[in-house]
Automatic annotation (TrEMBL):
It comes from Flavimobilis marinus. SMART domains: HTH_MERR. SUPFAM superfamilies: Putative DNA-binding domain. This is MerR family regulatory protein. Keywords: DNA-binding. Gene3D superfamilies: 1.10.1660.10.
Amino acid sequence: MSSRSVQQAAPDVETAAAERSGPRAVESWPPGISTRATMRISDVLGALRPEFPALTPSKLRFLEEQGLVEPVRTPAGYRQYSLADVERLRYVLAAQRDKYLPLKVIKEELAALDAGQGSVPLARAVPDGAGDLRPADRLTAQSLAESADVDVALVTGLMEAGVIRPDSRGHFDPWTLEVVRIAASVGAHGVEPRHLRAARLAADRSIDLVAAAVAPLRAAGTPSARARAGALGADLGESLAELHTVLLRQGVADLA
């Protein structure tokens, strides 16, 4: 067989392998959505990040570990997702963000939907106001509080603690919305904005590490070098975020 034939056959081999991996754990919800696994992690991020800009590969892997989504694996070991997986992820992420539901409860809700107990129209699976998270948007302290459904005093407290930082015009980018929502969630357990300074400082130190790593590429000034800097920065940032998550889980497990 020629190398060209091998290349042409490769997708079919991967599809067959995915089919041989056995039936997916859950197929009943959402109904009528393709369960054929053809999407890479980057495709899933591209589909969901306009609504959930803080979504990362490590978050997707964590949701997989919790049994909320089950991507298939290609013979090379890469994860592949279906359109149905994307809708399930959208449901999970929206429930976390908008209702602050724990994953255990979300998993129970999905199990009920899979069993045909109740239904959620897919138009409702995309949360109202998802357009608030477009990268082009710039939020003020007041609109940030309204979008996060919190008192403006929380936003002010986070600003005073240095956890969130407006730009020169007093505007915030869409990522800040997720920070405020998380701050509101942990605030329910007595964690105040001033307590979150440590998280801000840890993030800044990681950002400094990434900046130092990509500095030589950025200094080159060419379009290709800038593209490589962006890719390296994203990958390194995700790795550092994953390291932080693992260390945090390790420490919390020790508390138990």
